[in-house]
Amino acid sequence: MRIVVALGGNALLRRGEPMTADNQRANIRIAAEQIAKIHPGNELVIAHGNGPQVGLLSLQAQSYKPDEAYPLDVLGAETEGMIGYIIEQELGNLLDFEVPFATLLTQVEVDANDPAFKDPTKFIGPVYSKEDAERLAKEKGWVVKADGDKYRRVVASPKPKRIFEIRPIKWLLEKSSIVICAGGGGIPTMYDAERKLKGIEAVIDKDLCSALLAEQLEADLLVIATDVNAAFIDYGKPSQKAIAQAHPDELERLGFAAGSMGPKVQAACDFARHTGKVAVIGSLADIEDIVKGTAGTRVSTSKPGISYR
Predict the structure, then answer these.
(1) Is-catalytic flag, 264?
(2) What residues does the Aspartate/glutamate/uridylate kinase domain cover (predicted)?
(3) Which of 108, 135, 138, 143 has a 20 to 30 Å separation from 30 between CA atoms?
(4) Per-residue pLDDT for 251 more than 70?
């Protein structure tokens, strides 16, 4: 099978952990141990988040003079290289020496008129207290919003329209490479009035970009790996139930939160509808069973309705 695995941010850095290189490598090593289990007999493409990493680089950039700071699209490109390098190394240490790897800087087109630019929602960087967040917003011109009981910076999150490097990704897969691409949702770009491609100050949702990537690669399976073993109704309440299987229409009616499970559900539904294939939301620790079809929330148009575990 051709499988696209979208790694959640927790696979790189757990909430509240210091953003050290050692912590990130340790988490990626754990993720690599799980992904290595499904490599035999499958073609693998790995996408990943980058919110904490691009936020850290953005903070570093604030120490520069205003005209010296790098924009978010350039910082996103930096994180693709940094994270891809660690994934390649840790996964390569587990697989046969002859298995080839490639990390691709991935430009993704967005629409200049996307309404997301008027309402920033994408969290990046570390968490702050309300007082610190309000102070930083005033000092740096940020938009900040509540993230649980803390606050974080938010930027625009436009929808992905086109992945420019889709052809070289396919070429690499044809040569049996494991490809790491579309990190952080890809590098957001758009055409200007003169039809010149340029970067834009935004962060594309990783899961929505992964769904587009999987669709354009004609993948057999999209795995959206997160820190819970399924999508739930009434999550965190005594009445919570894990969703085992769902038709996209039924799943969308449940109304998942935009700041957590919402984008994952939307991505899974988009992929299932557009391709007729299966998308699964689940825990990275269950990835073998997800591929076997016995774990996670499976989203497909092949069956009507919704069922629970």
Answers:
(1) yes
(2) 1-281
(3) 108
(4) yes
Please tell me which residue in 9, 84, 186, 199 is annotated as part of the active site: 9
Catalytic residue flag (residue 10): yes
Question: Which pLDDT belongs to residue 62?
Answer: 67
pLDDT, residue 60, reads 76
C-beta separation of 90 from 166 below 8 A: no
pTM higher than 0.70 for the full model? yes
User: What are the extents of the domains in the chain?
Assistant: 2-107+161-219
Look over the chain and give the mean of its residue pLDDT values, rounded to a whole number.
92
pLDDT value of residue 66: 66
- Which residues, listed in sequence order, are joined to residue 245 by a DSSP beta bridge? 298, 307
Active-site residue (options: 49, 183, 229, 264): 264
- Per the annotation, the verdict on 9 as an active-site residue is yes
Classified by CATH at the fold level, domain 2-107+161-219 comes out as Carbamate kinase (3.40.1160)
Cβ contact 92:85 at 8 Å: no
Burial class (CB in 10 A: 0-12, 13-18, 19+), 150: middle
For residue range 200-237, list pLDDT tens digits in order: 989 999 999 999 999 999 999 999 999 899 999 998 88
User: Taking the C-alpha atoms of 94, 97, 40 and 10 in order, what is their torsion angle to the nearest 10 degrees?
Assistant: 40
Q: Which of 20-24, 87-91, 220-224 has the lowest mean pLDDT?
A: 20-24
Angle (nearest 5°) at CA 227 between 292 and 12: 105
